[in-house]
Every structure is written in structure tokens, then in C-alpha cells.
């Protein structure tokens, strides 16, 4: 309560608006009424509602057909054949099938929401949200009302066809994963064995180390101290793309580095794997297979740009940092009678990621 001698209280009591001052009187805010509800054709005509329902589940069935066609196209036009026409048809018809499947689902869902689901407007007053029993009961009733308005529970054909279309739309993607795991065949008996495939490269005894991609053989005398050269087997340069050039190169690519011989730390069994300070390691990272191509000349470290694994070139390319689980495979090398660098033999272990099961 204000004190009777309070000057502020006296000022409030004595205040009167001046004659020229307009005083606005604010009326209470009223909630605007909803506009009159306009019924749709499907609300007025039962036959129109039946047609709308028929259209929706037909679109869902059409989506299922598109998914089935995408799977069939994957089998009818196998990209494993290597023929450019099969690759084009594979991409075209699988894409058309998946596009039809997803587009039909989208159109059906939109038509369902516009023509079948109840569109009556309603007002939902705001209230304090508290976890009372009445609140939970109201939530349950809201789900029941939504189910009734959408017709999800009553319109069995629409519901079942939608579920089937959604499930079928996933099937082409699952089937396409098959291409990531080639299967054995009479022509390729080890196509499904990644360990065997990663053990078999084009490197063999006497294979000359050649520049990538020219295929020009490399003389040991031509390598300067600190140089890092990307090399492939000489035989690979003459291989055509149709004969698997890219597949073989992906496994056989090597980084050749020249250091001072005294900088190398070599185990007894690997003393003859290098030549006069020249060492060769697989470029395929042992983490997930990225190309290890960044060489730090001062530290003698190899860096994988994908996930920053680092390998020590001076010490059998052992892992210094990063997620790689094992050193880079080393290619044993020497020189031939003409002074060209050659492989003593192929890799003694599989190249590439360590997550493959190994012997």
C-alpha cells in the first residue's frame, strides 16, 4: 500500500489528460471465426471417393511394378559383361524403374492427402502441457481421430498397397549391393574371394618398374635422392581397359622412393628387398584403400589424404599415426643386367584394406 504522503501517488491521482491529447481505448482481442467449410467432390459424391481410393492404391501397385522392373533390369543388362551397351541399358532401365517407384509413391501420397484424408478445419485451444491421465487419454483419442480421418485403418487396400510399395521401393537398392560382391563363375573361379584377388597382382619376378601412366621403364641411376615416383608394372601399360586395366592398376600401383641407404631400418629377411636406398611400397592404404601419395621428403613419411594415416618409409612403412591397422606391403626390388629396376617377386601379402579376412 502506498504511503499517504507519497508524492508519486499524489501525482497519479491528480493527473488528467490535456484537451488536445487523444486516448486510445483498446477492445479485447477476439479469435477470428473459421471460414465456411467447402466440401470437396469426394466428400459430396461417394463414387468420386471410390475413384480416388482406386487411384491411390493403383499408384502404389504401379510403384511396386517399378521396383520389380528395376530388379529385373539389373539382371537383364549385367554390367559385368563389360559391353558399353549393357552398361548404358543397365543405368537407364534401373533408373527408370526406381524413378517410377518413388514418383508413384509421391503422387499417391499427395492424392491421398488431398482427396481422401479429412480436410475439416478445427480449432485446438492452447493449454498447459502436463503429464496427467487426462492428457494421455486425449493423446490416445487424437491418434484414434487421426486414424479415422485418414482412413488408414478402414481403407485396407490403400493401407496395404502403400506398405507394399514402400517395402518394394527398398528392394532395388538392396539388389544393387550385389554388384559390390562379385560371385564366382567358371570363367572367374575366385571372383568372390577378395583375399585371393588382393593377393594376385601383375607384379612377378622380373617385372620392370615403369612410370605411371606412360609405361616407360625406370633405371636405378635415373632416380635422384629424395625423389618419389608413381610406378606400375611395365606389362600393365599395354593392357586395354576392356582387359581390366583399371582393376589391375588399382592393385599394382606402387610408390618408389630413394633415400640414403644408411637411413633405412631393415630386418634381416628384407635386407635384399631394397636397392641402394631405393624402396617400393604399395600405394593402396591399408585402412580403406585410398591412394597414399603424399611424401614428406624431410621426415620420410607417407601420408594418406583420406584419413591422415602416416607411414614411415625408412622402417618398412610401419604405421605412425591414423586408423591404418598395418604397414604398407613392400615390393621386393633389384636391378637387371641393363640397370632397370625390376621386381624380385610379387607382394608377399594382400594389398589394400585390412578389414578383409586374410590367410
TrEMBL record:
Gene Ontology MF, one: monooxygenase activity
Renumbered residue ranges of the record's region Disordered: 1-43
Ranges where the Rieske domain occurs: 251-342
Protein name stated in the entry: Cytochrome bc1 complex Rieske iron-sulfur subunit
Highest taxon in the source lineage: Bacteria
TM helices/strands, residue ranges: 59-77, 92-112
CDD domains tied to this protein: Rieske
InterPro entries (UniProt xref): QcrA_N, Rieske_2Fe-2S, Rieske_2Fe-2S_sf, Rieske_Fe-S_prot, Rieske_Fe-S_prot_C
Source species taxonomy: Bacteria, Bacillati, Actinomycetota, Actinomycetes, Micrococcales
Functional note: Iron-sulfur subunit of the cytochrome bc1 complex, an essential component of the respiratory electron transport chain required for ATP synthesis. The bc1 complex catalyzes the oxidation of menaquinol and the reduction of cytochrome c in the respiratory chain. The bc1 complex operates through a Q-cycle mechanism that couples electron transfer to generation of the proton gradient that drives ATP synthesis.
Subcellular localization(s) per the UniProt record: Cell membrane
